[in-house]
Amino acid sequence: MVKHSTDTNHTRITLSPNRSASWAEVKLVVFCIAVFVLLIAAIWAFLGVWLVLPFAGFEVALLAFLMHKVNRQCCTKQVITINPQRVVIECGIQQPVFKWQFKRQTTHLSVIEAESAFDRLQMILTDDTISIKLGEFLNQQDCLIARDLLTRNGIMAVSNKWWKPR
Known about the structure:
Order of helices and strands: EEHHEEEEEEHE
Structural class: alpha+beta
Helix content: 25-40%
Number of helices: 3
Number of strands: 9
Strand order of the largest sheet: 1-2-3-4-5
Distance between the termini: 21 Å
């Protein structure tokens, strides 16, 4: 998902993964599956196959752990702030963990075009000293939107297939 806002002096572009469910919806799904699995395990335990209970509990715990981990990764954000002097990138989950500052004049966007219809383009923000991959979690359409927003805000884009029209 790509969001942007523009003020008089700066533009802020926020890149985040598309999410199909909120944390409350994920908890509801895990709860429903847990009730169903533990109900079946309780019936089997009542019939004498009590060894099913630990495996059912492990299954529910593993599902809850993995759903939490995936949902947390879906909260990843990259915030790109462009002003006349600097380009600032903040990356993190729920709060900025990393922050990089680029000089606006030496910064450009390296674009690696998709090789096939199933690939997506890759974007790397680069200056003289460092390169940062942008939007690794975005789909093809969102990558194109992000590239267009960055170029409209004065970041020069350099493609690996410069001879082909966009």
